[in-house]
Input
Amino acid sequence: MNQLQDSDDRLEAAKVDYDEFLVQLDRFLFSYIKRMWKGRDPNRADNYVVQLPSHKDNNIAGRPRVLVGRIVESLRSALDYAVFVLSERNGHRLNARHPKFVIVDDRDTFDHAAKVALKHLTQQERSFVERLQPYHGNVVLALIRDASNRTKHRRLLSMSHNTNLTLVLADAKDEHKYSGWWRVASDSGSAFFAKPSEFRRATMLNGYESSPGIGRRDPSN
Amino acid sequence: MKAVQALDVVIRQTESVLYVIAEYLNNGTAFPDVIKFDHQKPPVDPLQPELPPEESRRRLSVATTATPLGQGTTATPR
Output
């Protein structure tokens, strides 16, 4: 029997949302690029106009932002449920003061919070949770905490895209040279192609003490 | 504190924590003294410009990916 079924369910929900997030981020980027294309220059018909977006056009709203909020909430719930299971396994009937996976920024606060939230854990279980705390360098937990707190209190995450883009205006008959690129627009023999960096990147801008990181999904997984 | 993580890495590290707890629950495996995550340092995109330090402190990376750009010359996001 899988004792962490509830946690696993939430972890799986986060993965599903992440997959959709990737799709939604690409849709955002495509729309973002498409808005740059203005067609022929009305004053010089031989020329085309591409308008660079302003900084605020980088802001991501709507579905991608909702998905990121759901992902971090699911991850936090997954961790909370694990503590719940550990508490119950130790023979304690739980009431309204549900245990939770403590995430704090210093040892004193941890010791204080653990008296309630990790009350029913054994010493070694509590020690394991303590070793994972952000003040030991595990920034992932801080990220989950801060972002899920913001979402939980119905405050929107502020997200901005900063993926590098390559744009090309080419003769439409050279389309074969741009295999794998996005064909954003075309106009009487010319086509506007775009290719985002292999590394898509969106960042949250919520005043966290943090810096951007990038990564890639391992295609073998 | 510096947070440098992509969203897929955040998911994987959470999964790693849950895996350790599951092993403890199901098989009695002791908790490790140190949790070593497989994806602690995501690869760096050489094309990404450096952010100014002040900006860097305010930003938190949440999402990166290397999804295929699609097939064919007119590939567009779904």
Remarks:
- The CA atoms of residues 20 and 76 of chain B lie 40 Å apart.
- Confidence is low (pLDDT under 50) at residues 39-76 of chain B.
- The helical segments of chain B are 7-27, 53-58.
- Residues 7-27 of chain B form the longest helix (21 residues).
